[in-house]
Amino acid sequence: MGVGEGWGLLLCLAWTLAWTLSRAEADPAERQWRAVDVVLDCFLVEESRHPGSLASSRTMVDALLVLRQVPVLDDGSLEAFTDFQGDTLAKDNPPVTFEASVNLVQIPHAKALLHADCSGKEVTCEISHYFLQATEKKVSFITNVQVPGGGPSVSMVMKVLRDAENGAVLHPTLNLPLSPQGMVQTAVELQVTTQTPSLNFLLGTSASLHCGFSMAPGLDLTGVEWRLQYKGHGQLVYSWTTGQRQAKREGATLESEQLLLAGDASLTLPNLTVKDEGTYICQITTSLYQAQQIIQFHIQASPKVRLSLANKALPPTLICNIAGYYPLDVTVAWTREEPGGAPVPVSGASFSSLRQSPMGTYSISSFLKAEPGLEGSTYTCQVTHISLEEPLQASTWVAPPEQKMAFGVLFASSLFLLALLFLGLQLPHRGLPRR
């Protein structure tokens, strides 16, 4: 168990107890912001290049990120939270610990990070060196944090605060000065976040892709760029630079200038098509730093199911038509239910070739020879698709062969009697002989 994990477990237990005690007492109108330390187990990723070779190796070492005094809306459950103490670090082989001040930026999803352990989620956190665009001598790092299961994703650029001083204790591998508690002191100067790293939207609807940011005073926003990557191909969707907007995708819009400058760079896409699917990259560029967020965007279209009789010959053939669905994967299952019985699976179905419409949606048909039994059966075609909360079903009743044969015999007999009657009416009447 890492230091951050152990610390998170203690805080989780304290939070659970405090939340239980305060649940009935907490009044939403009385909630206040409270500054707490958010401690995350991370990995420090370092790239090293081998001499005389273009190849590089990637090493990961244990690290700890301490976000100092992050404002969190208190629902009454933060009373038991205490500040992180550096003396809790292990004496032997301690993790590389980064102490990050957030006084200059906002961390809007700090509560999700704070309570991730209590929700049974393991936060993914990676720290790596950041190479500045401008000729800035300060050393910087970038941290990427994500809460799995649809949670928020945050990227933070952190500037090292302490300069090397005479007699300062340096980290053995990073060669950076350490605080008296043995931590690398930094300040977050830019953060870019998204609430939803993965999105699913139905074909033809409109979607909003969230991207927010916060930057330190003194930094200027110089550019916002949205790009789409799909199957190895990249394209520009929307770009903004000071006073200029350019939409490459028809109908794409960015938030108003006022909201954009306030930190909202969300993108709106109307009339979604299959071509809108892929990986979206929201890139925020300032006068000194650059950071981005990645959103996996999936398009879905729900199938329409229709069950019909393909022919009336014995045995009859049923056809289940599944039309207009996306993405490609779909499951079709057949069942048969006799009177008074339970549905049982039926095998032996065949499929038509796959069809794709100009819109990119798919259609396919499933065929099944019906064997209804002596009393007839209800046949059901069940379709499962990712766009459906529950499977779609279509059912039809198939009469037994005997009823069909009896009907045929009765119909033929009726025709024969009608023919005899008609012929009898057509015969000439012979008169009786006179006396």
UniProtKB/TrEMBL annotation:
The record's keywords, sorted A to Z, are: Cell membrane, Disulfide bond, Endoplasmic reticulum, Golgi apparatus, Immunity, Immunoglobulin domain, Membrane, Microsome, Repeat, Signal, Transmembrane, Transmembrane helix
Compartment(s) where it occurs, according to its Swiss-Prot or TrEMBL record: Cell membrane; Endoplasmic reticulum membrane; Golgi apparatus membrane; Microsome membrane
* Regions crossing the membrane: 405-425
Q: Could you identify this protein by its name?
A: Tapasin-related protein
The UniProt entry lists membrane topology as: Single-pass type I membrane protein
Q: Which Pfam families match?
A: C1-set (PF07654), V-set (PF07686)
- Cite the InterPro entries for this sequence: Ig-like_dom, Ig-like_dom_sf, Ig-like_fold, Ig/MHC_CS, Ig_C1-set, Ig_sub, Ig_V-set, Immune_Resp_Modulators
Q: Chief location of this protein?
A: membrane
Signal peptide residues on this chain, from the entry's feature table: 1-26
